[in-house]
Amino acid sequence: MNKYDKFKCNNCGKKITVSNKELKTKLIDNTTVTYFVCRRCNAKFVVSCMDDYIKHKQEEYKKLKDSEAKLLQDMKEYSDGLGELYINEL
Length: 90
Fold this sequence. Notes:
Shape: elongated
Helix content: 25-40%
Number of strands: 5
Number of helices: 2
Structural class: alpha+beta
Radius of gyration: 21 Å
Largest sheet: 3 strands, antiparallel
Distance between the termini: 44 Å
């Protein structure tokens, strides 16, 4: 069970500590909305919204990050160190 920092409710002012089990999801027009509810006043706070487009863009981003990490690893393995110095100068 992950706990997150305390949030202050914009509605009642109560400080809220939210755990993963308190997060709720709801499907609205092909968009998955993750939210939590203030225990004092029942105000809802949106944590994230995810649809197919966002999922696709996150996958693209992950692939780019993975290829960047592989490129940097290859550069370290096959260079004499000058390549990294040159890139840092740019």
